[in-house]
């Protein structure tokens, strides 16, 4: 499998490029609007053809570029079937693999950050979206979040994967790129070790996090598979503007 990890700095989002060496088919997991041209260039530079975008959930901190990429190259939009969005081409369901040429991707329903959140298992790695982060997890205080569900999703499902499985999250805010199931299950400060369900519920209830600054624009935009609001306040325009430069060059 061809693999690239790409970082979008405005929302600290990781986008993952996966490709089949035999067929040249490629997918992007959690693509971000300001980086769509960079991502498409990465696909083309590898001699691949983008056939699918995959969003792990309806994001609250950025706008997906799924619709933009579909307009540009005809890629199909894969989103959790439970969200029932009209713009969906492929409704992801647990137990129904996504095929990318010879590469098999297995959607895993991991609710808690949002009610319809999915992780994607691909061979020896898992793309955990916002459910499991490196030394952390996504918040559970909006978009039908549920800390009890998140605890069961992570400890009952994700931590059930082989320990050597590589963990690639949708975000990191401290320059970290990858972890493993063994590491997170042992030392994740929120969900690892002997953390009990009740401990986790209390911890999440007392985080006292600020209201997400882009959520009121991001959620409706992402329910349309990636539509930027026509008018944004000056301090939010960077969420939709094309990236001036990228850490990847």
Automatic annotation (TrEMBL):
Residues 12-171 form the Metallo-beta-lactamase domain. InterPro entries: Metallo-B-lactamas, Mito_Persulfide_Diox, POD-like_MBL-fold, RibonucZ/Hydroxyglut_hydro. One of its GO terms (biological process) is glutathione metabolic process. Coiled coil: none annotated. It comes from the Bacteria. The keyword Metal-binding applies. GO terms for molecular function: metal ion binding; sulfur dioxygenase activity. Signal peptide: none annotated. Keywords: Metal-binding. The keyword Transcription regulation does not apply. Pfam families: Lactamase_B (PF00753). PANTHER family: PERSULFIDE DIOXYGENASE ETHE1, PERSULFIDE DIOXYGENASE ETHE1, MITOCHONDRIAL. This is Glyoxylase, beta-lactamase superfamily II. It comes from Lysobacter spongiicola DSM 21749.
């Amino acid at each position: 499998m061809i693999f690239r990890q790409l970082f979008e700095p405005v929302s600290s989002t990781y986008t993952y490029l996966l490709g089949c060496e035999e067929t040249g088919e490629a997918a992007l997991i959690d693509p971000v609007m300001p980086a769509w041209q960079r991502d498409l260039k990465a696909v083309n530079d590898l001699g691949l053809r983008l056939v699918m975008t995959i969003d792990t959930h309806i994001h609250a901190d950025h706008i997906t570029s799924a619709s933009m990429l579909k307009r540009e190259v005809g890629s199909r939009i894969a989103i959790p079937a439970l969200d029932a969005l009209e713009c969906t081409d492929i409704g992801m369901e647990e137990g129904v693999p996504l095929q990318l040429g010879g590469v098999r991707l297995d959607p895993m329903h991991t609710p808690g950050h949002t009610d319809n959140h999915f992780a994607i298992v691909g061979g020896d790695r898992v793309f955990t979206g916002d459910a499991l982060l490196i030394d952390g997890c996504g918040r559970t205080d909006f978009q039908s979040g549920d800390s009890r569900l998140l605890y069961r999703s992570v400890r009952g499902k994700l931590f059930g994967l082989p320990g050597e499985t590589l963990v690639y999250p949708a975000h990191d805010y401290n320059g970290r790129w990858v972890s493993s199931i063994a590491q997170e299950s042992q030392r994740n400060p929120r969900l690892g070790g002997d953390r009990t369900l009740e401990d986790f519920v209390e911890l999440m209830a007392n985080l006292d996090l600020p209201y997400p600054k882009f959520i009121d624009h991001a959620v409706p935009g992402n329910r349309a598979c990636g539509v930027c609001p026509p008018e944004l306040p000056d301090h939010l325009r960077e969420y939709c503007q094309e990236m001036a430069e990228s850490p990847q060059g």
